[in-house]
Request: fold
Amino acid sequence: MRSALKFQNVPHKLQCCILSMSKQQYRSEMGIMGDILDVTADGGRGGVIVSAISRKANLSHYAVLDKCEKLVEAGLVESVKNDRNRVFLITEKGLQFFQEFKRFQGLVESMNLRY
Reply:
């Protein structure tokens, strides 16, 4: 109740800004997929194991597996089983998509939109 009292004399527009700043900004599924493609692109020909994607994209192990499966089905990422690990590699189609995605992301950010 105290926080409501603090906003009593604040103009409406400023109050909206203050309230929106305190809300957690979540990534869209598209943003998450873009982060995974970014990590796999950085991995190069050697690919990237699930735990590295999880750490670099800030996702749980199971979320990475779920999203990577979707990327595999779309032909953007390839899954390869090596000695002990499952490795994900970005495909040529994935690289082309990721480049276009980054262009789109830049355009959206320049317009101050959220995707």
